[in-house]
Amino acid sequence: MRPIDERAIRASFINASRKEVSSVSLPQGFTEIDFDRIDYLGWSDAKFPRRAYVVTEVDDTLVGVLLQRAEQRVLMRAQCSWCEDVTLRNDVQLYSARKAGAAGRKGDTIGTLVCAEFGCSHNVRRLPPLAYEGFDRETARELRILRLQENVAGFLRAVAG
Ligand SMILES: [Zn+2]
Fold first, then answer.
1. pLDDT at 24
2. Cα of 92 from ligand 1 centre, angstroms
3. Ligand 1 centre from 29 Cα, in Å?
4. I need a surface site. Which of 24, 81, 129, 157 has the fewest CB within 10 A?
């Protein structure tokens, strides 16, 4: 994704109140993030343990969504619905997002299972195992990266309504 700054992040939220946006803490080590190597910026809020955020570009617009961790419990070995990693030991977390606009004010939410530490971008950049002789691992990796971008964008579009 293209590099973003704090102002762009705060302006991107589609399902958060002004008060919530003003209380968003930036991810730890924000200034050192290599945006070339991530498809979305996802992080938990150090001040609000059940709050997390996902920000990325959807159709050339930066979109941010506030997530609420549905349970304390981490689901072991379930599949992340964004990176769809099946080869790693993958701790995923159930998050819910209030829908944007009127639907959200009525209480509509959307749930999703995501890697507990938002490690999807890292997961999809690992070279996949050789599935068979002649298997093109580089292309497979490229496709996984694209698929992750599509999955995250699809989620953000669904929250936007
Ligand atoms: Zn993931």
1. 97
2. 7
3. 20
4. 129
Question: Rounded to an integer, what distance in angstroms lies between the CA atom of residue 147 and that of residue 144?
Answer: 5
For ligand 1, the distance from its centroid to the CA atom of residue 152, given in whole angstroms, is 10
Q: Are 76 and 94 in contact (CB under 8 A)?
A: no
Residue count of the chain, please give it.
Answer: 161
For 77-132, write each residue's pLDDT tens digit.
678 999 987 776 668 889 999 999 999 999 999 999 999 889 999 999 999 888 89
Ligand 1 mean position, distance from CA 90 (Å) = 8
**Separation of CA 119 and ligand 1 centre (Å):** 6
Residue 18 phi, psi (nearest 5): -60, -40
pLDDT score for 116: 83
Q: pLDDT at position 76, please?
A: 66
Between the CA of 20 and the centroid of ligand 1 the distance, in Å, is 25
